[in-house]
Each structure stands twice: as structure tokens, then as C-alpha cells.
Amino acid sequence: MKRLSSCLLLALSLTLVLAPFAFAATAAPVAPGADRSPVAPLATAVTTVTGIAISPLLGTGAYGAYQWMAAKDDAARAKLPWYAQWSFFGPALLLVGACAAKDALGAVVPPGLKKPLDVLETIENKATGLVAAGAVVPFTIDAITKMVLGGTTAEAGVAFAPDGLAMIHLGALDLTSLLNVLTVPFGIAMFAVVWMASHAINVLILLSPWGAIDAALKAARAGLLGLLTLSATINPWLGAALSLVVILVAWLVAGWSFRLTVFGSVFCWDFFTRRSGRFTPKENDNAMFAGGNLPGVPVRTYGRLVERTEGGLEFFYRPWLWLREKKVKVPAVNADIAVGRGLFFSTVGTDAAGTLFLLPPRYRGHEDVLVRAYQLGGGVREAGLRKAWSVVRELFGGGAARTQLT
Questions:
Q1: Model's pTM, two decimal places?
Q2: Distance between CA atoms of 47 and 40, rounded to whole angstroms?
């Protein structure tokens, strides 16, 4: 029922935002030689924003390079936005190539050397996502709005000449400004949902112990981006239809993507700042993530582990980090719980129940302190993998996965 309500809400939002475009484009004049489809520019905008969200650095760099090559002369190129200049898309595409080479060699590069590179790539994906959401996406939506309402476009990079409905004022507010109020926030929200789902791939690569999984995840994302580009080249509406499918899927997995994004952010911060050297676990109420076997709590939910005065452990968390706080009782006694020391981050659990909690990298080297603070009878053990399929299931959120403590 919740999924159905979410889909209906998404459909209603799309209808409310697209309806003004459809009306405006139907009534607006069409420039000679331009695409005469009623709202073809809107289809192009949806595909462009979705493609950039899937891979911000590659999408922004490729989009900028396309605009630069499409410009007729140097004068037109000089008027292009900053992301369509050689000074940006040249280094951006080189960095994309370097990341691809790192992934291609991932199977032979030792994990201790590859993991820092994965951390840096995850941070890069966050940074370029923020840049694209704050600059590229609003600029693209604004340009498409003027194209739809104005009906006339100039050369690449030259300002749109407003005519038709764009010149009609309603209560001293022209329709371009009105549609920007509706579409720019919606475009950014659409970008954020798709970006979170795509960014989850970077976090999965960060957590994965095998280079083969990394390469498969990257290949799947690159294949989706290539399919989206090819579809848009064949027909703008085909690309827009595929983009809407991507947006819908991203909307449905938004909760899973958000938890992975938070986990990746904490992981990168602890790893990059070497926080473990400046951190000591508290005697109670320590922050950590839910594992795949904590009943009633989605995997990688961020919260606090608290030991009750009367005995036993409880996990407190807020869905989406800000909703009303909830708590669950840990289904294991302290005497059975152990801390598993991993290569990059440690876990808390039992042999019977499996992984109950995931510890951020700041706890690396402080496992003994955590055991004493919560009086965990299992002590500290080296974490071993029971079987590869279980680890893969836990990586992607499967609740039945277990990690063996040996």
C-alpha cells in the first residue's frame, strides 16, 4: 500500500509539473526547421537530467563537450556555460578515464591500495553531484523552459529570444518565471532521487571485497547511461520514456539508496580523516548502523546502541534521520554477542543471529573498549566469511546473510 501511494504521488507530481509545459508548448509558435513535436524540449530535458544524475562527472563532461562541438564558431563557444568549456570537460573526462582504468585493474590491485582510491571516487561522486544539482540542472531546466515558451532558439550558448507565450505577463509575472518556480525544484528533486540510486553503486563498490563485483556494478551503470543516450539519439520520446522508468525505480528504492548514501558518507569521513586515532567509544549510547539481521530495522539504518539499566540492549533510530524516533530490542543477550574485527570496518553479532550491527571505521582498533562498555561475552574475534553468496546478499541488503566470527 505504501509503494502504491508513493507511485500515485510521483504520478501526480509529474502531471502537475508537465501540464503547464504541454499547454504552453501547444500554443507557442514553432521556429522554422525546429523539432515540431509539442514538448520535445521537455523530453530532452528529462533525459539530460537523468543521464547527468546517473553519472554526474561523466554526464556533465559529456554534455558540455557535446554543446562545445555543436556550437558553430568560436564566438558561440565563448558564450557557452562553464561546464561546456575545455577547461572543465577536458579534465573531467580524463578523470572519468582514470576511474575506469582503476576499476579495470581492480581485480589485480591489492585491496589495501584500491580501497583508498574507492574512497576518493566516492567523495568525487558526492562533490560532482552537488555541483550538478546546484548549477548544471537549474541551468538546463531554465534553458528548456525558455525554449518551450519562447518557441525560438538561438545558436548553442546564445540566450533564447523570448516570444509567444513567454512575452505574456500574468499579474506582472511572466510565464517563464512561473514555470521556473515549478520546474527547477522538481528537476533538482528528480536529479537527487536518481543520483542517490546511482551513488549507491559507489558505496557498494566501497564495501565490496571483490574487484569483480566492482567491475560488474560499474559496467551496469555505464550500460544504462549508454542505453539512455542511444535511446535519446534515436527518438527524444524513447529516451524520455526510459528516463521515467529509471526515475520510478529510483523512487521505489529511495529508502535503500538513502541509507547507503549515509553509510558511505560516514565511512568516507572516518576513513579520509583517520578519525579512529581521535575517537574512543563511550560507556553507553554509541552510534552505529543496523546490520542485516536486526529484526524490524532496515539494513544500514543509522542509530544508537543503548544498554538498559535492567539489562539487555536497545537500538534507537530515526527513519530518514529526522522522523519520530523508534526503538527495537536487540534479540540476543550480551553474553552471546561478539565484535568481529574486519579489514576496513568491524561488525557486532552472534554466530546464531548473524550480523546485528555495522561499525563505522572510527571503531577500528577500539573493539576491546566497545566489548567492555557493553559487557559483550563473545569478546573480539577475527571476522571470516562463511560463504561468498551470504556476503553478497548482505552487501545488497539481504536480511538472511550472516557473517561468521571465528
A1: 0.76
A2: 11
